[in-house]
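Hi support team,

I've been running sequence recovery on a batch of backbones for a student project. Most finish fine, but this one hangs at about 90% for roughly twenty minutes before it completes. I'm not sure whether the input is malformed or the queue is just slow. I've pasted the structure tokens below so you can try to reproduce it. Let me know if you need the job ID as well.

Thanks,
M.K.
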């Protein structure tokens, strides 16, 4: 090992180049980059599965911080190659050498991940590889990319396959701790995308393990995604080869109002979409319009948005030479893919519809309903716009303020008639308006804009604020500078607050973006000590106060209604004393998520949420 040949110098160059600029090859040296090492190997095993040579992949996270991937594929070739080196050593030590030995049709490796096993090797403190091939077990070990043993035969076997075990280099990575959930999530996805492939995951650190396998492939995935929704028909499955492209699609319409479209290219989740997505949407819309025109009475043309409301679909394409672009390199840009996918989806979908007229009717009916709801929402928006232009009749329940200066006007939206009454007496009528609403305000998530706009409480809020709604919302027309939600500090109050926040987030977002929306914070306790009265706004504050002043009379406020108007003014409404929490978009998004859990179709998530939060509901905060 004294004289280097030209070849050896080059090999050293590759390994050193990778170690010098790891980010260039794996995107970064954080958690994502770390797991990238694992995906690199798994993708190679998946390629073996795609080529029909592998049915089992086993991933193990070991106690010593290393990970291993074992498969029953063909095994990395071990034959001697140029200059007395084995093919295996070249694959392990030269950039982009994998493809040299095998023209694979739809390689995943070489796609998004696809930087090659040599990158994993270069960035590992050590790496061991076992190859079962031609009746023998071959073994070699490397350290930071360089072989430290010969390729040797260590046993005999009838099996075939590859095992690679590696320890990420702490000199390179910010963190070298593998995350079970990240790995499980991706392996589950891969099992669905590659039907019949069994993937085992074992975590020796915790004893946790999972087995992923799907007989039905992407059809099973769509069923899984729709498990809590009401489906209109059995999953439609399309599988076709066209112009050298493998196209596999699973489609199911549901009566929910969300679109869930999951696109993959060469097993990579193309979050940013691309030509396969554009082709799919175009083909689907065209097929439904074609079928509707021919077979449905009183049919009117559907837009893509109408068609896809309530649709769950998984679109998986395998492209020989995929091109990815975008922020996270997850947008497929091969232009030939669009036309192929569009024509396959159009013909296959039309054919399916013609074979299933009952289901087809249900689907078209759903699309027409989505269309009617969309048009009605637009008309409602226009109506509100027109009303605003003419000058609205303010809701009867509103006690408006007298000031004409929009910068000082504020409105309290108060839950319940009695609290509303107190607030009307308590307020400074010059600049404070009160709008009482009843407890049961509508669930905007489930009912959509149409029904929401028929709800009396919602109508009153829109009219009082006077700035329109949705696309036509105009913040400069807002009749108040502060919109303050004032609800009880209990679970019902929190619930109504969540409903209101969701409504404002969905239909008056600029109100939040411009900092117009607030939440009033009424006190939780009144503490009396002799002649002195304290108002306390949180549990921790109560603890501190009682420590300070000792034994005293503590009254818990269950609702705004328990306060007399003077107390309400002093504690919650008087600008000099009150606590107002300005609502941020993050608050609103959190409310919306909470909302989906509380109201949505996902029964399991709701059950989990209630179990997890049942201890803290006493004092649920936004
Ligand atoms: C190069 C060529 C062939 C297979 C592989 C690499 C291969 C790599 C990995 C990594 C993990 N498991 C793997 N399995 C196979 C083709 C081999 C042939 O043509 O016999």
């Amino acid at each position: 090992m004294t004289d280097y040949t030209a070849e050896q110098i080059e090999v050293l160059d590759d390994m050193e180049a990778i170690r010098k600029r790891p980010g260039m090859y794996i995107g970064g040296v954080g958690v994502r980059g770390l797991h990238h090492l694992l995906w690199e190997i798994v993708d190679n095993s998946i390629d073996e599965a795609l080529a029909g040579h592998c049915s089992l992949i086993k991933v193990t996270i070991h106690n010593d911080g290393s990970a291993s991937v074992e498969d029953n594929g063909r095994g990395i070739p071990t034959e001697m190659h140029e200059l007395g080196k084995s093919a295996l050593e070249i694959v392990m030590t030269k950039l982009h050498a994998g493809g040299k030995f095998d023209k694979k049709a739809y390689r995943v490796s070489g796609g998004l991940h696809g930087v090659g096993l040599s990158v994993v090797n270069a960035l590992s403190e050590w790496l061991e590889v076992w190859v079962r091939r031609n009746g023998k077990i071959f073994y070699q070990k490397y350290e930071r990319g360089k072989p430290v043993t010969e390729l040797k035969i260590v046993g005999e076997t009838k099996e075939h396959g590859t095992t690679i075990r590696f320890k990420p280099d702490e000199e390179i990575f910010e963190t070298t701790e593998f995350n079970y959930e990240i790995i499980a999530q991706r392996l589950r996805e891969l099992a669905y995308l590659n039907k019949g492939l069994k993937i085992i995951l074992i975590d020796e650190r915790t004893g946790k393990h999972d087995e992923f396998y799907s007989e039905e492939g992407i059809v099973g995935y769509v069923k899984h995604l729709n498990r809590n929704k009401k489906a209109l028909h059995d999953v439609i499955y399309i599988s076709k080869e066209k112009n050298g492209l493998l196209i596999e699609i699973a489609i199911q319409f549901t009566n929910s109002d969300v679109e869930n479209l999951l696109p993959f290219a060469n097993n990579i989740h193309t979050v940013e979409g691309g030509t396969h997505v554009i082709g799919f949407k175009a083909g689907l819309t065209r097929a439904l319009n074609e079928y509707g025109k021919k077979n449905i009475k009183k049919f009117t043309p559907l837009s893509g948005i109408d068609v896809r409301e309530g649709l769950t679909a998984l679109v998986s394409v395998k492209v020989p030479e995929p091109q990815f672009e975008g922020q996270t390199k997850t947008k497929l840009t091969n232009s030939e893919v669009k036309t192929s996918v569009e024509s396959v989806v159009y013909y296959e979908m039309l054919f399916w519809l013609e074979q299933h007229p009952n289901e087809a009717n249900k689907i078209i009916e759903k699309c027409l309903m989505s269309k009617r709801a969309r048009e009605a929402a637009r008309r409602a928006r226009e109506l509100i716009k027109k009303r605003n232009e003419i000058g609205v009749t303010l809701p009867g329940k509103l006690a408006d303020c007298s000031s004409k200066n929009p910068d000082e006007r504020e409105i309290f939206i108060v839950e319940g008639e009695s609290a509303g009454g107190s607030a009307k007496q308590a307020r400074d009528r010059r600049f404070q308006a009160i709008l009482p609403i009843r407890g049961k305000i509508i669930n905007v998530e489930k009912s959509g804009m149409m029904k929401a706009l028929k709800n009396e409480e919602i109508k009153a809020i829109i009219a009082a604020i006077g700035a329109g709604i949705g696309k036509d919302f105009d913040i400069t027309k807002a009749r108040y500078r502060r919109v303050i939600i004032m609800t009880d500090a209990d679970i019902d109050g929190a619930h109504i607050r969540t409903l209101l926040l969701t409504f404002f987030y969905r239909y008056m977002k600029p109100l939040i973006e411009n900092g117009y929306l607030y939440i009033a914070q009424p006190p939780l306790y009144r503490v009396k000590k002799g002649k002195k009265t304290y108002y306390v706004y949180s549990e921790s504050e109560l603890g501190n106060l009682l420590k300070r002043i000792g034994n005293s009379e503590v009254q818990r406020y269950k609702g705004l209604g328990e306060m007399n108007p003077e107390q309400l003014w002093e504690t919650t409404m008087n600008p000099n004393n009150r606590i107002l929490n300005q609502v941020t978009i993050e608050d609103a998004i959190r409310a919306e998520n909470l909302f989906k859990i509380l109201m949505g179709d996902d029964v399991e998530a709701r059950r989990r949420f209630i179990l997890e939060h049942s201890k803290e509901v006493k004092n649920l905060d936004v």
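--
Follow-up from support: It reproduced on our side and the slowdown came from queue contention, not your input. The first strand starts at residue 56 and ends at 61. No action needed from you.
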